[in-house]
Specification:
This protein has 438 residues and is of the alpha/beta class. It contains 16 helices and 15 strands. α4 runs parallel beside α13 and α14 packs parallel to α16. It is globular, with a radius of gyration of 22 Å. The protein starts with a helix and ends with a helix.
C-alpha cells in the first residue's frame, strides 16, 4: 500500500468513526459519551478484518452465534436464491412458505424427545417472550387461571425485551427499567463454586421451599439456561438438572429451557438438553440457528403445553415470523454443522482450549477456569475489562462480562487458532498478577 493510499484509507476510517459517533447509539454503551468504534469490514472463518485491514481472531463468535464461521459463500448463495424466489410474505393466519415448513420438519428431527411444534421468531428475546406467554396462556386456557408466576434464577440472561428482561437475573442490566414483567420470582445462581460439593442439594432444597412458599398452584413455569452464558459461562452442578426437572414435574410446573446460546452445537450436542438429560416443555433458540447470517429464532414446543393449549387462540406474533430467507439459510446452516461434524469439533476444540487455559486457575487473581464444549469462562477476582482491551490490541477478540472473560469461538476453529486464542488470553490474564506484584 502506497503512502497516499494508506492516508486515504485512514481518512475514510476516521470519517466512518466520526459518522458513527455522530449518528448511532450502540447497545450497551454510554449515551452521549461514545467510544470510537472498531469498524469491521469483512470476515472469513474464524477471522474478521477491520476497515483498515487489520485482522482479528474472533474468540466470541460475535455474540455466540457464528457456529459455521464468517463469510460462507454457500449461505450467501442460498439467501440470494431465496430472495429471487420469494423474499418475504407474512406467516400470520393460514399463510406459509416452503422454507419455513422444511425448517420446522428438520428442527423436529433434531429436537429432544417430546417436542412436537415450532413457532418462529426473529431472535432470542422474542423467543423468551413467546415461551412465557405460551406458558401463561396454557394454564389460562385450561381453566387454571391462577398459574401465572415464572421462576427464574439470579445470574440468568434471557433477553432485553420487557418480558425477557423481567426474567433476566443480572442487576446491572435491569437497573433503571422498572417496572418490569410482574409475577417473576428469582432463585439462587446455580454455581457450584458458591455452594461447594452440596450445591445441587442446596439449590433443589431452595426450589422446593420456594414452591411451597409461593404455592405450586400459582406457578406456570421455570425458565433456565442449561449453562449460564452471559452470567459467566457457568455449567450446572453435578446432577442439578434431573433433580430440578423431577421437582417441577411433581408440582405440575412447565420447564422452559433457554438454548439461545447452547443449541446447534455449542456444547458439542445439537441441544445442551441432551447433554444434561433435560426433557423440556419448551426450548427457546436463536443465534446458531442461522449462524447469525439472518436474524431468526424458534421456540420448540412440547407435548404437555400443547395439550393444555389445544383449542386456544394464540393472539401473538411478529411481522417476520417464518421468514423464508431466514428459514432457507437456517436449513443450509444446519446441513453444514452436520456435514462438517462440528458437534465433534466443539467437543474436541473445547477440551483443547480448556486444557490450555486450566493452569490459569492456580493464579491468585483467578477464581475459576471452567467450560462446556466451546463455552469457556475465566472468572477473575476483579473486572475483566482490561483483558478484553489488551487482547484486542494483540488481534484477538474476547468478551468481558463483569469479572469473567467469556470465550465462544466459531465451531470451525482450528487447533492452531485455539492455541493462539489460549496464548493471548493466558498472557493478559497473567499480566494482571504481574501488575499487582510490581
Amino acid at each position: 500500500m502506497t503512502t497516499d493510499t494508506a492516508t486515504q484509507s485512514s481518512e475514510r476510517v476516521e470519517a466512518l468513526q466520526s459518522a458513527d459517533t455522530r449518528t448511532l447509539i450502540h447497545p450497551h454503551t454510554v449515551i452521549g459519551s461514545p467510544d470510537r468504534p472498531l469498524v469491521l469490514a469483512r470476515g472469513e472463518g474464524v477471522t474478521v478484518w477491520d476497515a483498515e485491514g487489520r485482522s482479528y481472531l474472533d474468540g466470541t463468535c460475535g455474540l455466540w452465534q457464528c457456529a459455521v464461521g464468517h463469510g460462507r459463500p454457500e449461505l450467501a448463495q442460498v439467501a440470494a436464491d431465496q430472495i429471487r424466489e420469494l423474499e418475504f410474505y407474512s406467516s400470520f393466519g393460514d399463510y406459509s412458505n416452503e422454507p419455513a415448513i422444511r425448517l420446522g420438519e428438520r428442527l423436529l428431527e433434531l429436537a429432544p424427545s417430546g417436542i412436537e411444534r415450532v413457532f418462529f421468531t426473529n431472535g432470542g428475546s422474542e423467543g423468551t417472550e413467546t415461551a412465557i406467554k405460551l406458558a401463561r396462556l396454557a394454564f389460562h386456557h385450561a381453566g387454571v387461571t391462577g398459574r401465572t408466576i415464572i421462576l427464574s434464577r439470579q445470574g440468568a440472561y434471557h433477553g432485553m425485551g420487557g418480558g425477557s428482561l423481567g426474567v433476566t437475573g443480572i442487576d446491572r442490566l435491569r437497573d433503571g427499567y422498572d417496572p418490569l414483567l410482574p409475577g417473576v420470582e428469582f432463585l439462587s445462581r446455580p454455581h457450584a463454586l458458591e455452594y461447594g460439593a452440596d450445591a445441587t442439594d442446596v439449590l433443589v432444597a431452595e426450589l422446593e421451599r420456594r414452591i411451597k412458599e409461593i404455592g405450586a398452584e400459582r406457578i406456570a413455569a421455570f425458565i433456565g439456561e442449561p449453562v449460564l452464558g452471559v452470567g459467566g459461562m457457568v455449567p450446572p452442578p453435578e446432577g442439578y438438572w434431573p433433580r430440578v426437572q423431577e421437582t417441577l414435574r411433581r408440582h405440575g410446573i412447565l420447564l422452559i429451557v433457554d438454548e439461545i446460546v447452547t443449541a446447534f452445537g455449542r456444547t458439542g450436542h445439537w441441544f445442551a438438553s441432551e447433554r444434561y438429560g433435560i426433557e423440556p416443555d419448551m426450548i427457546v433458540t436463536a443465534k446458531g440457528l442461522t449462524s447469525g447470517y439472518i436474524p431468526m429464532g424458534a421456540v420448540l414446543i412440547g407435548r404437555r403445553p400443547l395439550e393444555l393449549l389445544d383449542g386456544a387462540l394464540f393472539a401473538h406474533g411478529f411481522t417476520y415470523n417464518g421468514h423464508p430467507v431466514g428459514a432457507a439459510v437456517a436449513r443450509a446452516n444446519l446441513e453444514i454443522i452436520e456435514r462438517e461434524r462440528l458437534l465433534d469439533g466443539a467437543r474436541h476444540m473445547g477440551e483443547r482450549l480448556l486444557e490450555a487455559l486450566a493452569p490459569l486457575g492456580s493464579l491468585a487473581h483467578v477464581r475459576e477456569v471452567r467450560g462446556v464444549g466451546l463455552m469457556i469462562g475465566i472468572e477473575l477476582t476483579e473486572d475483566a475489562g482490561s483483558v478484553q482491551a489488551a487482547a484486542r490490541e494483540d488481534g484477538v477478540i474476547v468478551r468481558a462480562a463483569g469479572s469473567t472473560i467469556l470465550l465462544s469461538p466459531p465451531l470451525v476453529i482450528s487447533e492452531a487458532q485455539v492455541d493462539q486464542l489460549a496464548s493471548v488470553v493466558a498472557k493478559h490474564v497473567s499480566d494482571i498478577g504481574e501488575r499487582a506484584t510490581s
